[in-house]
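Exercise 7. Given the encoded structure of a 285-residue chain, write a plausible sequence.
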């Protein structure tokens, strides 16, 4: 059976799952989304993803025509329907189709789409040996233009930064904010370790408040690793002892090089390793 995709309460096979070309999600990137994971058939931190989705929607004045509980149930149903154990889930809410023109009042029917598919992770070698990133010249969205806390269907600035990374042979790229501080990577949050202290940019640095990021902060506290949310610059990353990224897709992935410079001794550090395995354990419980 081909993949079953949820659209507005109905399931369609992958080939038949279609949305109007008049949808403002397509025409203007007018919509919000979430990227979630399921492990052993159970969605990781589902409620937090649902909360963030509704916050994103509220921020763009998009009313999701479904209760949070009903949407959570639909996510679980989509995973179960496709008999997936470990899955990547894309939850999308668009403004819906309407007249050509920006006016969201001229749209009706927001579209709710849930895709649950298998996940392609980064190569295993990156998790063991760490990966290299570059600093992109494309900055993260200015918070006064479009808050990076909104997971909107407008990902172009991150895509441009991702292209910069790929052209430099890196799968992730570090993005600075409008003040020149470290924000995050194109689809992952960033942590550094300096003198035994774990540090990550605060939400007001213009980042998406990652669910994996928050899980790692919880794990650090549980393991007695001091952790602070603090503004940091590229300099702090360059002189860090350790660095890693977090995200629903990437989980916890060590970074050993930035802009061709080794971080610390260029090896995956002990705190990165500890949190990487603690996270693995957490999601598989
Ligand atoms: N920053 C940005 C800009 C993101 O898009 C994260 C951080 C990490 O957040 P979570 O909540 O996932 O820990 C994201 C999340 C994909 C994909 O398909 C992207 C994300 C998540 C899942 C899949 O590239 N981005």
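Solution.
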């Amino acid at each position: 059976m081909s993949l079953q995709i949820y659209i507005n309460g109905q399931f369609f096979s992958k080939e038949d799952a279609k949305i109007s070309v008049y949808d403002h999600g397509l025409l203007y990137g007018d919509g919000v989304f979430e990227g979630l994971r399921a492990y052993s058939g159970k969605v990781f931190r589902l409620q937090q993803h649902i909360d963030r989705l509704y916050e994103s929607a509220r921020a763009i004045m998009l009313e999701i025509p479904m209760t949070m509980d009903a949407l959570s149930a639909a996510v679980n149903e989509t995973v179960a329907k496709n008999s997936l154990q470990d899955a990547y889930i894309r939850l999308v809410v668009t403004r819906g189709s309407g007249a050509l023109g920006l006016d969201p009042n001229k749209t009706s029917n927001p579209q709710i789409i849930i895709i649950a598919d298998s996940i392609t992770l980064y190569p295993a070698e990156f998790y063991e040996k760490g990966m290299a990133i570059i600093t992109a010249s494309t900055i993260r969205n200015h918070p006064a233009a479009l808050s990076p806390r909104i997971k909107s269907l407008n990902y172009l600035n991150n895509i441009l930064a991702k292209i910069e990374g790929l052209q430099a042979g890196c799968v992730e790229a570090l993005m600075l904010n409008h003040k020149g501080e470290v924000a995050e990577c194109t689809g992952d949050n960033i942590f550094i370790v300096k003198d035994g202290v774990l540090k990550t940019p605060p939400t007001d640095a213009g980042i998406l408040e990652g669910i994996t990021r928050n899980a790692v902060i919880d794990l650090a506290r549980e393991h007695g690793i001091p952790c602070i949310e603090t503004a940091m610059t590229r300099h702090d990353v360059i002189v860090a002892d350790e660095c890693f990224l977090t995200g629903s897709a990437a989980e916890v992935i060590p970074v050993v090089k930035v802009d061709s410079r080794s971080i610390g001794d260029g090896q995956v550090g002990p705190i990165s390793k500890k949190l990487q395995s603690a996270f693995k354990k957490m999601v598989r419980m």
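Remark. The chain has a mean pLDDT of 97. Students should compare their own answers with the one above.
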